[in-house]
Amino acid sequence: MNQNAAHMPHRYHGRIILASMTILLSLAAASLAAAPAGADSVPAVGKRPVILFWTDKPALVPHATYLTPSITLSPPASGDPLSQGRLLSEGVMPLKWCPGQSLAGESDAQILATWAKIAREGYVGLGIDELGGLNHARTVRFARLLTRFHEEHPNVYLAVWSAGIIDPVLARAYKSSVNLVMIEAYGPWGLHQWERFAVRLTEARLFGIVHKCIFGIGIDDAAPPDVLKSWGKWANDPRDLEAQLRWIAKHASDMPGVGFFAADASDRMLTVADALAHRYFSAR
Description:
- The longest helix has 23 residues.
- A nine-stranded parallel sheet has the order 3-2-1-9-8-7-6-5-4.
- It has one domain: Glycosidases (TIM Barrel).
- The chain contains nine helices and nine strands.
- It is α/β, with parallel strands linked by helices and 284 residues long.
């Protein structure tokens, strides 16, 4: 698809977006009316731009300011590139992987205990993977658990991978109890990706959390064939990746940066993503 077409959706897609916006306006009004006092007490992000990578190869992403998931508690002098202490000394915020709604079969107490165990081990930041989707009852439950966990562990930095629509109940929890929301926006560049960005960005603005939200772009060019068949090809070409970053930099300047889910990215694409992120977001 011509990249310019992404900026000029045809009337059918425009009607879909307008309908979505109307629904979201109603939901946002109800959500904000019910927001608790002092709900925005959790700091969003630091003064540096958010350039987040899901990768175990920090040497290939020297401009990263956030790193996840395989953080360790090795001493900084150990030479372990994923040492929490070493990353902190280099100005990188480490986010230890933490299960999210995959724990739905467990009790509330068990879920909170799982999260608390990771925090008690000494990890300063948790990257919860993932919350959201169309199961409203599950969303309500995990929104409540997020809020409770933050109340019990206010000094733990919480980041959440958010899938699908931003439910108003979940948005309240994000606003009151989460530091960083990583909106999953995986896909090749094109009209549907433009729509995905536009709708999620509007949701984040309506719920008053855009300042702590980033888009998580997927890169899976080195994924096995069965994974590519199941997940689809994401931003696996430098031109497509740059087109997405350019859109975000232009239209989402109120977001603090960008993230990359790059567990199956090639070394080449990690390097490209790091350089492009630095080019488009280093001034934030």
